[in-house]
Structures are given as structure tokens and as C-alpha cells.
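Deliverable D2.4 — example input (C-alpha cells):
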């Protein structure tokens, strides 16, 4: 039997708290050098497909959204992919904010002061829908075959990266006594950040799911998420080989699980009876995507 020393445990908690309060957990130097080494001078306009990447500007206190299409027409938003990736992964308390500048041929400069886009769009599904809807409204040549509000032509696959199991360890009685410190850091957890992240992601899922149901195209929206992660698997920064292999195993098991949808009353994902597994849903989605691609090619040739 191993007995813990209460005094030592208390000191450990104080040390961890001091680290959280004194600055980000990591200095970010390695992830920056690795990202810059992999992406080099490649810019957003050079992506092989159209992408949308959310970030948040702490100086302007508003989201900054990077898209391939805008990068091709606005040099001041055609940033290096490495800068964008470093910014959108700069999770508060874990990694430092990222500053960089872009220039255009006229000598104009734009400055960015960015952190993780998840603080504004932890689930970026609506960003994608909004972006495509805007292209349809301005008669973008790539979307002339789609009419506004024609959800039958939309295929949305929303892949979650996993969430911690709902332990329901907090209550109004407990939280009512919390001050700034407890809301920010509570025995290793970050209740305030967790609340913002969960609510942001779930509201988007609820909105998108409802929208497709109203437009009679509910099967064109597929959300796959595992909200039962525990221990190291639920952490955002445990990159040991053992944990990474465990995450691979969890992902493969998720494919075999029945399709599910979040219950608005409990906040938990519940099985959709008769809808098959996530793997079967992905195969169906791939077929639909292939069919739509062929139809688009035929329309373009005619």
C-alpha cells in the first residue's frame, strides 16, 4: 500500500497553481519550430483545397477567420500557413499567443495578435455553412448549381476530437461559493474555460442539426463525437506513445459504435436507433459526395 503525504500533495497543488497563474504551461518554441519546418513559406492561398481556419484576435477582441478564397483576393489575409496553424492552436493557459504581420504589394501592413480559434468557434461547422452560403448569395461560379436554402446539396461531416466524460462533479451549491480563482483553476480543472468550450460546441451542433431537420435534409448532417473520454485520453496535452496509441484505438472503436445525437436535456450523446454505425454513415456520406461530384462535373460539361 502506498500512502500519500498530505503535506506533499498540498505543495504539489500549490506548485501547479503557480505555474498556471505565472504564464502558459508551455513556451511554444518546439511547436513553432516544428510547424515552420513542415510548412515553410507556404501561404494560405496555396492550399490544395478550400479551407476555413478560425482564430481569435486578443487585441481586437473578435474572431479572425482565415479562408483560402479570401487569401486569393486579399494579400493582407494571405498569411503563411505556419503562422495561422500556430495561432489557431495557441490554447489559452497552454501556449502563448502568436503575433505576426502580413504585407501587400502597396506597402500596407496588417498586424495579428492571435490565440486558439476554439474560444470563438470550438465547433467550426457554422463557419463553413456561413462561408458557403455567402458564396451562393454572391453567385460564386463554384456554387451556381446550388440554390439558397437548398440543403439537399449540403453534406456536412462534423468530426469531434473527443470530450471528457460528464462526471457531474460540480453543482450550483458548490459553484455558488467560487471566486475568480476557483472558476479559473479548480483542482487541476478549468471550469470556466470548460463551460465556454462545451457550450460553444454544443450550441453549434444543436443549431446545425435543427437547421437540417427543418429543411428536410437531416441525413445530410453527420456529427461524430465521443464524449466518454477519461484519464489521459481526455487530456489535451498528453502526447506519450501509449496515450496516442490509445486514442487510435478509441477512434477505431468509435467507428463501430451506433450513430448518436446530443440530448438537449442531459447534454450527452444518445444512440439513434435504426440509423446504423458511424462507419456505415461515413460510407453513405462518401457515396453521396461522389454522386454530387459526378453531377457537378456533368453540369459543368453541358
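Example output (designed residues):
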Amino acid at each position: 500500500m502506498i500512502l500519500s503525504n498530505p503535506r506533499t500533495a498540498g505543495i504539489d497543488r500549490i506548485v501547479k497553481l503557480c505555474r498556471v497563474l505565472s504564464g502558459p504551461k508551455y513556451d511554444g518554441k518546439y511547436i513553432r519550430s516544428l510547424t515552420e519546418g513542415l510548412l515553410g513559406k507556404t501561404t494560405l492561398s496555396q492550399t490544395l483545397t478550400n479551407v476555413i481556419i478560425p482564430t481569435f484576435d486578443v487585441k481586437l477582441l473578435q474572431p479572425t477567420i482565415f479562408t483560402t478564397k479570401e487569401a486569393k483576393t486579399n494579400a493582407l489575409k494571405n498569411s503563411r500557413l505556419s503562422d495561422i496553424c500556430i495561432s489557431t492552436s495557441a490554447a489559452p493557459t497552454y501556449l502563448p499567443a502568436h503575433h505576426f504581420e502580413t504585407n501587400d504589394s502597396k506597402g500596407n501592413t496588417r498586424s495579428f495578435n492571435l490565440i486558439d480559434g476554439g474560444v470563438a468557434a470550438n465547433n467550426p461547422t457554422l463557419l463553413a455553412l456561413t462561408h458557403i452560403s455567402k458564396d451562393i448569395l454572391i453567385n460564386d461560379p463554384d456554387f451556381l448549381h446550388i440554390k439558397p436554402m437548398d440543403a439537399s446539396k449540403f453534406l456536412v461531416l462534423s468530426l469531434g476530437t473527443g470530450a471528457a466524460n460528464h462526471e457531474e462533479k460540480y453543482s450550483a451549491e458548490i459553484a455558488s461559493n467560487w471566486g475568480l480563482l476557483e472558476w479559473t483553476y479548480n483542482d487541476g480543472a478549468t471550469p470556466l474555460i470548460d463551460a465556454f468550450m462545451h457550450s460553444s460546441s454544443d450550441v453549434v451542433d444543436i443549431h446545425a442539426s435543427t437547421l437540417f431537420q427543418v429543411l428536410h435534409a437531416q441525413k445530410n448532417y453527420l456529427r461524430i463525437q465521443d464524449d466518454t473520454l477519461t484519464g489521459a485520453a481526455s487530456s489535451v496535452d498528453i502526447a506519450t506513445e501509449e496515450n496516442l496509441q490509445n486514442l487510435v484505438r478509441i477512434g477505431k472503436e468509435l467507428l463501430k459504435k451506433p450513430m448518436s445525437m446530443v440530448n438537449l436535456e442531459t447534454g450527452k450523446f444518445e444512440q439513434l436507433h435504426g440509423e446504423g454505425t458511424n462507419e456505415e454513415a461515413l460510407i453513405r456520406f462518401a457515396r453521396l459526395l461522389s454522386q454530387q461530384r459526378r453531377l457537378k462535373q456533368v453540369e459543368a460539361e453541358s
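The beta strands are 52-57, 62-67, 98-103, 109-116, 156-159, 221-224, 260-262, 269-271.
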